Amino acid sequence: MIEINDLAFSYKKKKPLFSKLNLQLSEGRIHGLLGKNGAGKTTLLKLISGLLFPDGGEIKTLGYKPANRKPSMLQDIYFLFEEFTLPDFSIQKFKEIYSVFYPNFNENQFNEYLSEFEIHDNEKLNSLSYGQKKKVLIAFGLACNTKLLIMDEPTNGLDIPSKSQFRKIMAGAIDESKCVIISTHQVRDLDNLIDSITILDQQDVIISQPIEKITEKLCFKAISQNDTNDKIYYSENGLRGHWAVVENDKNEDSKLDIEMLFHATFANKKRMQDLFNNIKNS
Predict the structure, then answer these.
(1) Stretch 159-179: mean pLDDT, rounded?
(2) Claim: this prediction has a pTM higher than 0.85
(3) Domains in the chain, please, with CATH?
(4) Average of per-residue pLDDT values in the chain
(5) The 18-25 sheet, strands edge to edge
């Protein structure tokens, strides 16, 4: 679905943001794209969708070079930006104008998603709050039924009930033919939704693996606070006790904690890369 080989990119008069970055993302998964501020998450999404052009290397998105911006590629990509400006249209007019660019747009699905988000389609976009506008764009993007759906911080601006609605809608909208990439800092919002994780840092991909591969290699569990096992990658005290990310040398079953994985990755970048280096992405 997406293949990136030796990608190089920098903004003018700034140090390189990416240099020889390699990444593969497959269909049938919801990929979580994580990284610290300035790691290049949004830039990478724009390169994948053809909104920015690489300085070197190669990107293939849906079999196309995204920099060529072929209509046959663009009609199969929907990009939900973190920041956006919407026209002073009704939701109905917005749908009528923009849905024609997406051949697989499904009006019934759009109306169902709006109903799930408790939004009426006769409302004017500019009368809505930021969170409500975002819900309209999420509903529209899902109804476009594109092969590639890109979401940059989709839960920003959503209240707690809306985040729950978002997870429910997303879980029911994805099938094996679609690839979803969600860039986020709000990892707790996407627990039980993301099924593959990519972590960026300093021009490099530290991890890019399905969750089942991560939990094969790492175990997330409670340990003794005095445990000094050299297999521990990260540990912290919390309301649940003393929890750790530990190398899974005993083939234990555990539930992935995305936030702890993130902390463990940046505490032990080289160890983490070595641990996952021989696993083929899927």
Answers:
(1) 88
(2) yes
(3) 27-55+63-194 (3.40.50.300), 209-282 (no CATH)
(4) 90
(5) 18-25, 2-9, 56-61
